[in-house]
TrEMBL record:
CDD domains: Bet_v1-like. Belongs to the BetVI family. It holds the Pfam family Bet_v_1. GO terms for molecular function: abscisic acid binding; protein phosphatase inhibitor activity; signaling receptor activity. Residues 29-151 form the Bet v I/Major latex protein domain. GO terms for cellular component: cytoplasm; nucleus. This is Bet v I/Major latex protein domain-containing protein. Transmembrane segments: none annotated. SUPFAM superfamilies: Bet v1-like. InterPro entries: Bet_v_I/MLP, Plant_def-hormone_signal, START-like_dom_sf. GO terms for biological process: abscisic acid-activated signaling pathway; defense response. Gene3D superfamilies: 3.30.530.20.
Amino acid sequence: MKGHLSHDYLLEVPAAVVWDTYRGLELGKLVNQMFQDVVGMIEVVHGDGGVGTILKITFPPGTLGLSYMKEIFTEADDEQRVKESEIIEGGFKDFGFEVYRYRFQIIEKNGESSIIRSSVEYEIDDKLQEIASLATTKQMEALNEVVGKHLKQKWDSSNKKP
């Protein structure tokens, strides 16, 4: 069984600015500095932020009953502003998902705003289809909201007009 979930988050910040944060390791650094209570602790196991980079995310207590996961970056497309990663250990794999993939796409709406499209793709054995209801974009939505507020505040303060 395969599934797909998606969520759009509108942000009054240019797409290029948002992509600079989401494309490599900057997002993880920002989470560790400001949002550990929402997302957890992110550590680089291997890599420099490009394809093949492996991260370990240790979740805050009570996060869907998960303690940690490791993910690998499988796509980083600067032209399309797409970043994709797949869980390789822990997390939703522990529930029985064969594949659990996260994808962020930063879409330019106009010169002053953008959309963060977050999606999850998953595969699970047909016999475990009741577990498919655990798939969610909620963590990504929370991340986009806190990072979005931070980027908006930073963007507004650096672009004040006299």
